[in-house]
Amino acid sequence: MQWSPAQLSLVQEMIQIGSDIVSRKLTLASGGNMSVRDPENSEQFVVTGAGTWFDRLGANHFSTVSLEGQVVGGTIQPSSEWKLHQRTYVKRPDVMAIIHVHPQYSVLIDALGHSVRFFTVDHISYVESIGTVPFAPNGSDALGDSVAEQFATQNCVILGNHGSATAADSLEMAYRRVLNLEEAAMNTYRALLLGDRSSSFTQDGPFSVHA
Q1: Considering its fold, how many domains does the chain have in total?
Q2: CATH at residue 185
Q3: What b/e string do you get for 47-56 counting C-beta neighbours within 10 Å, with b at 16 or more?
Q4: Residue 70 domain flag
């Protein structure tokens, strides 16, 4: 597919982010996917293709999908999780980018029945709050619908026994949210190892103690 300069700039940004995601071990092999709303047409989005590895992306590894769910461009089939992206873009006209990865601390904390806690101002600033959804099969309507429903009021969602998804007005902000969500989860894990289950930073002020 011949990308316009505006489209190509965002595709190249996704390629760079994909490589960084793998270097930080936020996903393995072909796990995860990301997309950006098409700057040429807000009624469609560009998404990573099925089976693509984040650290091996090229300009030919993306598909363009309409908000009606039709493949309208690109050289390969879209990620099996395209419904997660499509339904979120429909529900959130302000969202311009979505990143779905498989960060192990976020998944672990949620799977063990704990909530990810905020420890820094960055966690509050970028993550803000976290939605969760129970496990649903990859690529299913149930998964796409449940994640989009959480995105109606959240910008970060943990998918039960699966991964995380973040949404934002730019790829950069969506990735900042990925990084800060996983750091908060990692710090939550460390606190639990130390036996601490009470302190977390909140938007209301300094560290607050919860029962």
Answers
A1: 1
A2: 3.40.225.10
A3: bbbbebbbee
A4: yes
Q: Which contiguous run of DSSP H or E holds residue 107?
A: helix 104-111
Instruction: Assess if residue 127 is contained within a domain.
Output: yes
Q: What is the mean pLDDT of residues 135-160?
A: 97
Q: Is the pLDDT reported for residue 53 higher than 90?
A: yes
The reply to whether 207 falls in a domain is no
Q: What are phi and psi of 35, to 5 degrees?
A: -150, 165
Contacts for 98 with CB less than 8 Å, ≥ 6 apart: 34, 35, 84, 85, 88, 89, 165, 166, 167, 174
DSSP structural state of residue 102: -
Residue 152 has pLDDT above 60, yes or no: yes
User: Count of alpha carbons within 13 Å of 88, Cβ hemisphere only?
Assistant: 34
Please give the model's pTM, rounded to 2 decimal places: 0.93
Instruction: Report residue 69 as tokens.
Output: 């769910």
- In sequence order, what are the residues at sequence separation of 6 or more whose Cβ sits closer than 8 angstroms to the Cβ of residue 67? 43, 44, 45, 86, 89, 90
Looking at residue 196, its pLDDT comes to 87
- Half-sphere exposure of residue 174, counting CA atoms within 13 Å on the CB side? 29
| Best CA proximity match to 168, nearest among 183, 184, 179 | 179
Backbone phi and psi for residue 196, each to the nearest 5 degrees, phi listed first: -90, 125
